[in-house]
From TrEMBL:
One of its GO terms (biological process) is N-acetylglucosamine catabolic process. GO terms for molecular function: ferrous iron binding; N-acetylglucosamine-6-phosphate deacetylase activity; oxidoreductase activity, acting on single donors with incorporation of molecular oxygen, incorporation of two atoms of oxygen; zinc ion binding. It comes from Colletotrichum orchidophilum. This is Amidohydrolase. It comes from the Eukaryota. Coiled coil: none annotated. Keywords: Hydrolase. Residues 997-1213 form the Extradiol ring-cleavage dioxygenase class III enzyme subunit B domain. Transmembrane segments: none annotated. InterPro entries: Amidohydro-rel, Extradiol_dOase_DODA, Metal-dep_hydrolase_composite, Metal_Hydrolase, Xdiol_dOase_suB.
Length: 1234
């Protein structure tokens, strides 16, 4: 857990102990001859050394007689300890147990009938390759029999006749049933909520290296959050120490059942242990910022990451020393008898747990974000020979899968991730919502965690759902919070699946667990139902989600377009222009010069578009909505939350305007635009997160600077004051004094007629508040503080009425941000016409003034938003942190799905758009000629909705395309030249349709990156449509060529001769880098095809070696085709030239491409292979290389390197194709010229 995010230091650790490497040998060899005199000296020296060594060895042997001072009983205990030290734990069995070790006598058996069950693994007989691809997974309809704390049967229609008479029957009514959710990173119990100084036991900050402390010693079974977390279906958590230390201490796996109400016998941490036998131990370690911040100062380590590595290595060295001493003692006791020992077994409690880690008895979990930290820690594992179970947070692991695969022990660590929580500190600034998808595609395991209370673990399943949204396959997303963490905890045969022999930890859901707003109807832990009277939301039984493979297509920015036509639109939810079609009917929407020109058939416009260069986007279930507005966070005033240099700063004593602190055109704002958030309202922070002071500014998120036309649409939106616990500072040490100061300032503003000399002073703005010109926004959570604020409002209004003598009673425009306890005074808020922006939307009692928040079903009947809406309070969803900008639509979706019919889809979307302006009492800057809106494929309220375009009131619209593309075979004019070459030139080069035609074609594809060369080896391969957003015919393309297992085997052997470690893959489909060019090159499809991946390492030498292996196949008449895009593959530049952006930009890109092509061609066409590969090894030094192929994005250049290595000492040739005005090179070798 990160102190920046929670007010305390973070928690993460992992590492196992290694033996230090031996002394290095001298690099200088002794001469073989010596003068006789020196020779004699050497002989004498050697004899002396041998004598010393023998004496030293004898000195450590035990005495032959027992020592009178040693206890024989103690020595026998030590000998028994030797066996424990040598023991390597195994994962405890599940099937075969008579009862669960946690079973409580007297617990009645239960039969769950008529459930739709996710077993958690592929059906028996599915290959590991197929299972990873998602084959063999499905939901089944069955009953589940629970007895003795175990799942006894999972079968359809279990007969009651064979069951005990006292059995309890629970009807699932067809709802979906999974294993209980497992959170592999939590501080529940040690970081109890609400946060109070007396109950925070996350970090032991007396020393940087504390492997000897244990989280269980601070675990509070009465932490209310334990029950709240369980209400999200979480049955098991790994409770870790914090990450304030490089080595934080031991962790423990608990189950969320506490005391008799939960089916247990006592309230104790011991009774919560998931594995009472403690087969495995767990430890937390942490790299990076936190330990430096806590301990680093001049003269005290760790001051830097260099110092951290020393701290780790020194600790491992001490533990390794203890391991060696113990092993020596045990070996001597075995050899000579324990009674001969002259001392007791060496033991040191300080290093005991770390030495156990070196012995392989402890699963290490390490908090590590950045590449330098990851690389250093991987180095430690190899130096001291210990594995790592998982890297936590792991924001940059997706960039370096090859580094993870170098961890000692041969098992790459998992990455324990947030789905999209980033930007909160420097380490988290580089990250990607697609990290889980990328790691999975590289053969690694992502799991999703809460770091509770950083995220509310009640909703850790929502992290997995978002991972699915960002492209992680459905089965992998569900596994990431069930079977995957179970296996990583060493409990994979007991928890995480619904199978006989597994612990009866079960959740039944009111909707698909990966859908928006999914909540449990009931939860069982060890067979005991956890909620005696659960609240259940009224949701229609819709069945499981059909996994959408299109979600695997990541979206990429496209330059702004002035004109575009959208077809296939099902719903338009714009104010004044609402359209909802029935059945399969859809409408078209035409956008031109910043405005929507037509909604409907738009026949003329669509016909004109198709006959011109206007872009036509075919949507499936298209939705068009108002764009979203972010309010409550610091977006626009902050780049990295906890980096002072990127932040506007705190305002605990002064008064300032948000306008004066605006910093636009940064990463957070770019992401906001991409996810449909085109407007934001931000106020300076008072002291920290979700505190406000001064005046807020309204601005567009895509502006480059504040003076740009339309960038700022309201210089001063509202006046802000903070009345949370953070208000107790400076001149106002209490909440009452802060309330009193607000009352005094407002009454002063009422009383004075003097506007003052400074129109930007606080008094001047408060005058505008009491005059009704500006709203007053109060950041409050406590219901009591809200009541006090309502009294202030009434008092000031009375003063205004007394002064004005008007028949109309003047009203202050007051609204609230925060509102965790606002439901307790909902009717009073409605009566006072005070609106509420909930931030967080789903409060979870992190602070004392939020302790009475509603957590929702199954614990409470609704949440704050439901009560507020029922009372007539205008309500919106605010943001407590900037990273939530991606999630606004989904949060509105939760409100709609879990509102029991209170909200239509349009009204739910108003929560993140229109209602923000209603609450503030201001007019939304919106017009039909400059409209802000977003275009989605699917609903933005659903987990599968994908944003496709955004308009922010400008002449142009930002399109987000999912590339790659099938355009060459769909007749796109811009691909005409390359398509013609593929049809005419390449068949000649390959000698197709001649007696010399190749016996097979190996295609090296840029769209398949792996850690090792991977070869398609099946007889047949399906097509992998790795693109999205194109006409329907793009998904019905066929290329029925055969594969060739025998040639795949030949290729494998050739690669092995080059020192590579190739992998055969008989299942992966041919991606579009294979079938799109082959459809044009050889539509007959009568020559076998073998697909070969490139390497994620992007190492030139490895790709040259792949090429040399292929040269052997060329000799046996196998053609080699590299499918990439060597001349240009920066997606932004490609889109810029494809979509006809600024002519100057196009000209500049064309010039860069020409300069790059010249240097590249000079290298590629060198006749000698050695010269060619040497020149291409330095390709990153060519002009504009990073503009042409971005860092970590050179996969489209790698096929050329393979082909350059496959060509021997022979003449190369090239030809040009025009691509939207840019010169695109194709290189080839052979005896044919085209």
């Amino acid at each position: 857990m990160d102190s920046e995010k929670s007010g305390m230091l973070p928690p993460y650790s992992a590492a196992e102990l290694p033996t230090p490497s031996g002394p290095r040998r001298s690099s200088h060899h002794h001469k073989r001859w010596l003068r006789p005199r020196r020779s004699m000296k050497l002989v004498v020296g050697c004899l002396a050394f041998i004598a010393f060594a023998q004496w030293k060895q004898l000195s450590i042997l035990p005495s032959r007689g027992p020592s009178s001072s040693l206890s024989a009983e103690h020595l026998q205990q030590d000998l028994a300890t030797c066996a424990k030290l040598r023991h390597k734990p195994q994962d405890p069995i599940g099937l075969g147990r008579e009862k669960n070790a946690r079973y409580v006598d007297g617990q009645r058996p239960t039969l769950i009938r008529n459930a739709t069950i996710w077993v958690g693994e592929a059906v028996e007989g599915t290959s590991s390759e197929d299972a990873r691809a998602g084959k063999g997974y499905s939901w089944i309809t069955a009953d589940v029999l629970i007895d003795y704390g175990l799942i006894q049967k999972v079968e359809a229609d279990i007969s009651l006749s064979s069951l005990p008479k006292d059995i309890q029957i629970w009807d699932a009514k067809g709802r979906q049933l999974t294993s209980g959710i497992i959170d592999m990173h939590s501080h529940a119990g040690v970081g109890a909520l609400p946060e109070l100084n007396g109950n925070q036991d996350v970090n032991e900050l007396s020393d940087d290296i504390t492997p000897y402390v244990r989280s269980i010693d601070g675990l509070n079974p009465l932490d209310p959050q334990i029950q709240v977390i369980k209400s999200g279906g979480v049955t098991t958590s790994l409770v870790l120490p914090g990450s304030g230390n490089n080595i934080g201490g031991e962790a423990f796996v608990i189950k969320h059942a506490v005391g008799k109400p939960d089916g247990r016998t006592e309230f104790s941490a011991e009774d919560m242990l998931a594995d009472p036998d403690r087969n495995w131990r767990y430890m937390k370690m942490a790299c990076g910022e936190n330990a430096k911040r806590v301990y680093g100062k001049i003269g005290h380590s760790p001051f830097s990451r260099l110092g951290e590595s020393w701290e780790f290595r020194h600790a491992f060295e001490q533990a390794a020393k203890l391991v060696q001493e113990q092993d020596d003692w045990c070996a001597a006791a075995d050899k000579f008898g324990v009674e001969s020992q002259s001392s007791y077994l060496p033991q040191d409690l300080k290093w005991e747990s770390l030495s156990a880690a070196l012995r392989g008895q402890v699963h290490i979990n390490t908090h590590c974000y950045t590449i330098p930290d990851l690389e250093a820690f991987v180095d430690h594992t190899n130096e001291f020979k210990f594995p790592v179970r998982a890297f936590h947070h792991a924001h940059q692991t997706f960039l370096v899968p090859e580094i993870l695969k170098r961890v000692w022990g041969g098992r790459p660590p998992a990455s324990a991730l947030f789905a999209d929580n980033m930007y909160y500190k420097s380490e988290s600034y580089v990250g990607s919502e697609y990290a889980g998808k990328i790691l999975w595609e590289n053969g690694l395991t992502p799991v999703y965690v809460s770091d509770n209370p950083v995220l509310n673990a009640q909703h850790v399943l929502f992290e997995a759902a978002k991972a699915y949204r960002y492209g992680l396959p459905y089965h992998a997303a569900l596994s990431s919070v069930t079977s995957a963490p179970a296996e990583l905890l060493g409990l994979g045969q007991r928890i995480g699946k619904i199978k006989p022999g597994f612990d009866a930890d079960i959740a039944v859901w009111d909707s698909d667990p990966l859908s928006v707003g999914a909540a449990p109807a009931q939860v069982w832990i060890d067979g005991a139902a956890q909620f005696s009277d659960p609240f259940e939301l009224k949701k229609p039984l819709e069945g499981p989600i059909s996994p959408d493979p299109k979600l695997a297509n990541t979206t990429e920015d496209i330059i702004d377009l002035k004109e575009v036509v959208f077809t296939g639109v099902s719903n338009v939810w714009l104010s004044g222009e609402e359209v909802s079609t029935a059945n399969d009917e859809t409408v078209n929407v035409v956008f031109s010069n910043g405005a929507i020109k037509c909604i409907g058939a738009c026949a003329e416009e669509v016909a004109a578009a198709k006959s011109s260069s206007m872009k036509v986007i075919d949507l499936e279930n298209g939705h068009i909505t108002e764009s979203f507005t972010a309010f409550g966070s610091l977006i626009g005033l902050n780049g990295i939350d906890n980096e002072a240099d990127t932040d506007n700063g705190r305002n605990p004593t002064g008064f300032s305007r948000g306008l004066d602190g605006l910093v636009l055109d940064n990463k957070k704002l770019h992401v906001a635009k991409r996810y449909g958030v085109t407007k934001a309202i931000s106020a300076p922070k008072f002291t920290g997160g979700l505190t406000h002071s001064g005046t807020s500014v309204g601005f567009n998120t895509d502006a480059k600077h504040a003076l740009e036309k339309g960038a700022v649409w309201a210089e001063d939106v509202a006046v802000h004051r903070t009345l949370t616990l953070a208000a107790k500072t400076g001149d106002n040490p209490s909440i009452s004094s802060a309330i009193g100061a607000l009352r005094h300032a407002l009454l002063e503003a009422v009383a004075t007629n003097d506007t003052g000399s400074d129109p930007f002073s606080e008094s001047a703005y408060l005058k505008k508040v009491v005059n009704g010109k500006l709203p007053l926004v109060l950041t409050i959570h406590s219901a009591d503080a809200i009541v006090a604020a309502l009294r202030v409002k009434a008092t000031v209004e009375e003063a205004l009425a007394a002064k004005s003598h008007s028949s109309e009673s003047p009203k202050l425009r007051v609204s609230i941000i925060g509102g965790a306890e606002s439901h307790l005074v909902a009717s009073e808020l409605a009566a006072a016409s005070v609106g509420v922006l909930l931030a967080p939307f789903q409060s979870y009692s992190t602070t004392w003034d939020q302790r009475r928040s509603l957590t929702g079903a199954p614990l409470t009947n609704g949440t704050a938003i439901d009560t507020l809406i029922d009372a007539g309070v205008i309500t919106a969803i605010g943001l407590e942190e900037d990273w939530l900008i991606r999630d606004l639509g989904l949060l509105a979706g939760i409100a709609q799905k879990n509102g029991n019919g209170r909200l239509s889809e349009k009204k739910a979307l108003d929560l993140v758009s229109t209602n923000v302006y209603k609450i503030l009492g201001i007019e939304e800057s919106q017009s039909k000629s400059a409209r802000h809106f977003a275009v989605y494929e699917g609903s933005p309220l659903e987990i599968g909705g994908r944003i496709r375009a955004v308009s922010s009131g400008r002449d142009t619209m930002l399109l987000l395309f999912e590339l790659p593309s099938p355009l060459p075979v769909l007749g796109d004019p811009g691909h005409a030249a390359s398509a013609a070459s593929l049809k005419k030139r390449v068949p000649k080069i390959l000698k197709l349709n001649t007696p010399d035609a190749p016996r097979a074609i190996v295609v090296v594809t840029a769209h398949w990156s792996e850690g090792a060369p991977t070869i398609s080896s099946g007889d047949r391969h399906e097509l992998y449509y790795d693109y999205g957003g194109f006409p329907r015919e793009a998904y019905s393309l066929k290329y029925p060529a055969a594969g060739s297992p025998s040639i795949a085997q030949e290729l494998k052997q050739a690669l092995e001769k080059e020192g590579l470690s190739p992998v055969l893959n008989s299942r992966r489909g041919w991606d579009h880098g294979v079938f799109i060019p082959l459809l044009l090159i050889h539509p007959a499809a009568d020559i076998p095809v073998i697909q070969l991946s490139v390497l994620a390492s992007e190492d030139p030498d490895e790709h040259f070696r792949m090429g040399r292996a292929l040269s052997a196949l060329r000799d046996s008449n196998v053609a080699v085709v590299g499918s990439g895009f060597a001349s240009l593959h920066d997606m932004g530049k490609l889109r810029s030239i494809m979509l006809g952006g600024d002519p100057a930009t196009g000209k500049r890109i064309g010039k860069q491409v020409d300069e790059w092509n010249k240097e590249l061609t000079d290298a590629v066409l060198l006749e000698k292979r050695e010269d060619r590969t040497k020149a291409l090894s330095n390709w990153r030094k060519f002009s504009h290389s990073y503009e042409i192929h971005p860092r970590y994005g050179a996969e489209h250049f790698m096929p050329l390197l393979v082909c350059a290595g496959a060509a021997e000492d022979e003449v190369g040739r090239e030809y040009n194709d025009d691509f939207y005005g840019a010169n695109i090179k194709t290189y080839y070798w052979g005896d044919v010229r085209v």
